[in-house]
Amino acid sequence: MTDLTSRKDEALRLIQGASSLAELDEQRVAALGKKGWVSLELKSLGGMSPEERQEAAPAIQAVRGEIADAIAAKKDALEQAELEAQLASETVDLTLPAPESPRGSIHPVSQVMDELAEIFADLGFAVATGPEIEDDWHNFTALNMDESHPARAMHDTFYFPDTAAGAGAASGNEAADPKRMLLRTHTSPVQIRSMVEQGAPIRLIAPGRVYRSDSDATHTPMFHQVEGLVIDRDIHLGHLKWTLETFFKAFFEREDIVLRLRPSYFPFTEPSVEVDVGYSNEGGRRVVGGHGDDDGHDWMELGGSGMVNPRVLEFAGIDPKEWQGFAFGLGIDRIAMLKYGMNDLRAFFDGDPRWLKHYGFSPFDQPTLSAGVGVRP
Ligand code: DAH
Question: Mean pLDDT in each 10-residue stretch from start to end of the chain (377 residues)?
Fold first, then answer.
């Protein structure tokens, strides 16, 4: 009996002294576990005569109860202490200013599209859009691109597989299926959609994504263009040149912009011109401005344009005897790189947050003509 009492006292002392829940559990296993000493004492009752058992059992049961109670009490105390320590270490001071949450930025392409819209709105141009998944008729046929035009080849244009059967037309053997679907290769089909939908007169720009099977340092399979279209009664190339010159002066925010219109060929314009802008080389960087033929200057191509081909007007249901106009197409990524000084087109579409933080714009930096369309954040 004394033995039982001293073992119990020792167990209670150890339970009391446990400094963690893990240590406490060790004590529980040592006493009350399957092979714990209290359990063994209880088992030994089985080997006793009924009289012995009657005498010994209540003492052992009492010890077991006392130890179990001590463990439960200690467990509560340890848990409470743990909670208090946690609360003490995690106090929240509601009077402190909140940490600033990370803010996204406006991609330079989006910013430049806003700048374009702002400048052209001032010249009376509306913004038009069209589908990026386009059909053959709007993307090629109505733009007077014949069946054997190289841009219609499978290796240049992304066709949709279920409609690619008609792509044999690219070889010139079969008529192109006007409903064959593809990813638009330029923004020019928006010209057709707008003419069909609203008729003449027209004054619009159509910025957006276009797709070609092309990939290297200066070409990505997806890139951005802006189309321009003006249809009215007495429009001529002079209007085109003035419009583009006025746009570039506002966009690059300098007066010494010189354009050169170079004869070219596009099926949808007649005559067609390529638009070059004079630039100088400053510290390895191309800076737009000045006359391309001057010392230290050169010309750089920015896009194509021309007078809308009368056949295109006819395709779109506009009478070419009554109406005429000009159209142009510019690369948005290209002019964004020139204005804001990036040199690798691929970085535009990598989605690297460091690049976006460096070249991106604040959402609050709305381009306006009065405040300057190109204010850096
Ligand atoms: N669509 C042409 C291209 O992607 C660019 C272009 C050239 C558009 C002349 C025009 C234009 O509107 O008149 O290469």
Answer: 84 93 93 92 90 90 93 94 89 88 92 96 97 96 90 84 54 66 97 97 98 87 97 97 96 95 96 96 90 94 97 98 98 94 90 93 84 66
Separation between Cα atoms, residue 103 and residue 288, nearest integer Å: 32
Closest ligand 1 atom to residue 143 Cα is: 1
- Separation of 60 CA from ligand 1 center, angstroms? 99
Are the C-beta atoms of residues 317 and 195 closer than 8 Å to each other?
A: yes
Write down the pTM of the prediction: 0.73
Residue ID of nearest Cα to ligand 1 atom 13: 305
326 CB near ligand 1 (under 6 Å): no
Residue with tokens 């009391």: 16
Contact indicator for 159, 181 with CB cutoff of 8 Å = yes
- How far apart are alpha carbons 115 and 374 in whole angstroms? 8
Cα–Cα distance measured from residue 247 to residue 224, given in angstroms and rounded to the nearest whole number: 18
Ligand 1 proximity of 186 Cβ (cutoff 6 Å): yes
Report the SS3 class of residue 243: helix
Dist CA 256 CA 289 (whole Å): 5
Long-range Cβ pairs for the range 213-220 (8 Å, 24+): 213/155, 213/156, 213/157, 213/158, 214/156, 217/344, 217/345, 217/346, 218/345, 219/345, 220/345, 220/346, 220/348, 220/349
Ligand 1 atom at minimal distance to the Cα of residue 188: 1
Residues 189 and 140: beta-carbon distance below 8 Å: no
